[in-house]
Amino acid sequence: MKKTTIWILGIVMGLSFLSLLYLQISYIEEMATMRNEQFDESVKRALLAASKDVESEEVDRWLREDISSIDRNAWSQRSQNSKTQSQSFTITGPDGSKIELKTFSGGTQELPKAMISRRHGTKTIPQTSRSMAEMLRNRYLYQRDLLDEIAWQMVYNADVKPVSERINFRNLDNYIHSGLVDNGVNLSYHFKVIDGDGKEVYRCSDFNEKGSDQLYTQPLFLNDTPARMSIVQVHFPGKRDYIFDSVSFMIPSVVFTLVLLVTFIFTIYVIFRQKKLTEMKNDFINNMTHEFKTPISTISLAAQMLNDPAVSKSPSMFQHISGVINDETKRLRLEVEKVLQMSMFDHDKATMKPKEIDMNALIEGVVNTFALKVERYNGKIESELLAEDPIVYADEMHITNVIFNLMDNAVKYKREDVDLHLNVKTWNEGKKLMIAVQDNGIGIKKENLKKIFERFYRVHTGNLHDVKGFGLGLAYVKKIITDHNGTIKAESELNVGTRFIIALPLFNID
Fold it and tell me: Which of 214, 237, 260 is the last residue of a domain?
């Protein structure tokens, strides 16, 4: 699959996941807002109902107190008046029948009573009915006047009376609770009451002022004057959890979408990485083919020359051809060993045979051996073995290969217009042995510097087509140093040179 196709599929799938995630989050926010509005509306209805209940309780109390007072006054006046006032009326009907009406009253507040008597044995049922209707009308007028009087007393006396005397706070709590339950809100709450002067007259024992960031306010007596109007403030400490619980069933879907998005991104990353590794392996196979082709061709040509009778008659020619075959065989064996190094990366660690090693002595031996190769390119190699404690616990063969690979890279990537200058240095830094291999080669760009320790990665060398390799040398170096609990880093500047710094733990640590 082409890289462009992978990018298109990745962008389309990524946008789809992000759109789905955005829709889910928007839906949750909208649902939370709607639930919050429903909660606010339910609380407002509940508090309004509680306010009406408080007003009804006050009206009922006024009626009971005033009617009882009027009744007591009426009985008192009746007992004080020894004589009962009475009036007598005689009504003559159209048919000539007569009805005698007598009224008795013991005071101004006493309801008039009527007695009807029938004379001459005449039929008086219609007249009696009209008399009863008149009496009921009088009673209605009396009760209405009584209620008007009570209402006027409430209007003139309510503002003067303290709120604490007008409200039973226990009943107010019950009214609020009943109103909330009737409106579907079964949540704990706190409340306090404030009078018209702004003074707090009641507070729940568990009311928390710090947590009351959102208070629901409701006037208790709507007919009071604005200057004297008392209010109740209600706070729900568990409101946020209540709203969250109402939309919490959507949280798993968001989590699953995020998991799918992360999995998808990781899958795309793996695909690109595998594609990159595939390309590197293809380059590796091509390089390996070219690397093997040259020594094999040389050995084949040398073998054909040995079959020539003229060569066998010339000892010097025979020795030269034998030397060529031997050198190319060594070169081929070295390339095979490099390929076999790749199998190390399929295991957690390479096979190690550690022992105490004097790194100053080991590096000096590698420098002496490598000096001939450097001199072949008119170069110069120097060593500064300054480490006072050079003893490490390491595998001698692998550590030797590490130093050799770093020096070999310096030779491969030297500048054509400048003689090679290679420097190897050791020193102690804390409880570590430091090793630096520095050259004056072509250097490495900053964007390539962090990738040079990856498998199969090779820095582009421009017109230097004669640089051969599989891209395994520095990856091998990195793995060996890591397996020895050490670190390696590279410092480079283009067209100036490169410096590799290795840090290995010392064997003798006090």
Answer: 237
